[in-house]
Amino acid sequence: QSALTQPRSVSGSPGQSVTISCTGTSSDVGGYNYVSWYQQHPGKAPKLMIYDVSKRPSGVPDRFSGSKSGNTASLTISGLQAEDDADYYCCSDAGSSYVFGTGTKVTVL
Amino acid sequence: EVQVVESGGGLVQPGESLRLSCAASGFTFSGHWMTWVRQAPGKGLEWVANINQDGSEKNYVDSVRGRFTISRDNAKNSLYLQMNSLRAEDTAVYYCARFHYSGMDAWGQGTTVTVSS
Q1: In a 3-state reduction of DSSP, which class is residue B51?
Q2: pLDDT tens sequence across B100-109
Q3: A87 and A105 in contact (C-beta within 8 Å)?
């Protein structure tokens, strides 16, 4: 049950695109199409942005998209906006457990 | 409106116990897996435990297995986390969340547990 590996930080200017990677193993990310992504602003509860690798809950802008290749999942934010400045966590089913990523700070310059 | 509200956090000494509660409303509680997730101060999210719709299946992260027990009362629309033999490393904000497919789509505001002598 080791945490999934994410870059510590990524940044971009408004309007640009950024991609966050989430690397696991064949026992979690690579073994299941059950990856989700969460946005968390300081002092707030996490918010679901993507589930089942690439599905968006209602109300989440289509600027957010998810994908997976092998043991690595990715979250792409297109058309970066000021309100996207937050921490992002991936999460994967790992059989009878779940494992979160180490978290990535997205900074909008 | 879908809502989950945690309660029961507090300051306890190492080795003591605490029971967290989560009150759900605005959805069919008995139709969803539920989970507890924690976040230590300044750290990332950690999945703690989950439970299926009728309480017959429960899963735990290795670090709490044998010390924590997740349970639910569908008649009361409530989720619980009984935490025994608490350690300093259990200090965190504990969130209750609803599962929707593979995602946790409804979160509470969290309840803070501090384990310190």
Answers
A1: strand
A2: 888 999 999 9
A3: yes
